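Attaching the record inline, Q. Sequence:
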Amino acid sequence: MRAGGAGNAARLALMTGATGYIGGRLVPELLDAGYRVRVMVRDPRKVAARPWAGRVEVAVADALDASATGEALEGVDVAYYLLHALGTGSDFAERELEAAQIFGQQARARGVDRIVYLGGLHPGGGEELSPHLRSRREVGRALLGSGVPTVVLQAAVIIGSGSASFEMVRYLTERLPWMVTPKWVDTATQPVAVRDVLRYLVLAASLPPDVHRTFDICGDEVMTYRAMMQRYAEVAGLPQRRIVRVPVLSVSLSSHWVGLVTPVPASIARPLVDSLVHEAVVKERDLDAYLPPDAPRPLSFDRAVALALSKVRHMDVATAWTSASSPGAPSDPYPGDPAWSGGSLYADERSTLVAADAGTTWQVVEGLGGRNGWYSWPLGWWVRGALDRLAGGPGLRRGRLHPQRLSTGDAVDWWRVEDVQPGRSLRLRAEMRLPGLAWLELTVEPGGPGRSVLHQRALFHPRGLAGHLYWAVISPFHRIVFGGMQQNMAREAERLQQHRQQPTQSSGERSWRPST
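Structure, as predicted:
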């Protein structure tokens, strides 16, 4: 351990995956435990709006860039490796392994005291693992072989608001009172609450220097997925579900079925479903020996579900699986950026003078998507979302993390917030399946006393002939979709303005009702 300080306050922790589900929750836990924290991100804008942003250092680096990764690791005592490429393509395992090897090599070169990695719980022996679990295992082995003391924590299903695995269980149970399931419904697993995972991750940073191994982490109860769904129904106050197991439902069909029923798209559901055939039961609980004597017991499954549902109902979900970019999401620069290479660019531009001040109009803009919908032709949006789900995209079911606030990097249905200037502008990038790249820009400007101007611009950069044909086919519908959206957002802002001026006005006197 580096000299020069007493306790955790003298120790610097590097967090990768800080904008992801676990990393975004672990940062404040480490800060509260007294660590100094540096986050390694590709886009610093994605952490700017986090409540802990002002308490951390920011290092800009891509995990596949050895030089930048090394600079991010300079002076670090403990490095958390929480990067995964789940569902990002057929070569995800190769990229995960390459990034882990670079990270381990640079951590050793920079004198890092410890690496901590969160992997997946899997059966031992010679059982052939799914590509997802196999990749997690190989990443753990690469870090253990880096020459840096490493702790690899292995967890099965993580129960917490916003977890992809939990959301699968939640939506399947809530939406299907009767379901036909494949044989994995009776696979044994040992779920663990997200707050217990965070507790173990913080503990791992302070383990003795000679601890260099994997640890299984879990809750107290071994369950099947069938039991989890039935117990979820009980905690949520739903009738018991009728679950029929059939032997003919393939992994591919299962993942598409999950993709259609839940917000988790098939591209992410596939590797998760692939892994459900493997029993995930702990073989040891050695890490518990390092817990303080008065440490609480792991949360029960029922308690973890109840807490997760409480967070969902009170709109207090800190991070979600959607925090990470969608598999296959475009990474090309925005047309306004200097690095953009140009080419064909179609645009649909509209502006409207709104009889409401800029703050009120912005409130409508920032509330787009999710339960509020898109203020035009709900059936058309629903059909387009359903087609996107069938194609393996996110569709509209992904929703949004918070109903009123947006930050850079947030998911909004099939869009991703690429840039937001509060009170002024919002730029969304499409993550739906398209033969090209698409953006939606909304800008609000003052338009005189009690008035504002709403600017709206939809951009499309086609790829190949299919992209040009796509624009030609959909452009006639823009008057309905974007024109209606513009007018109905203006009406909603005017309604809100009028309601503020006349507080007793009935909430039913609205000219437009957002789609749900």
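The radius of gyration is 24 Å. Residues 346-501 form a domain with the Alpha-D-Glucose-1,6-Bisphosphate; Chain A, domain 4 fold (CATH 3.30.530.20).

More tomorrow.
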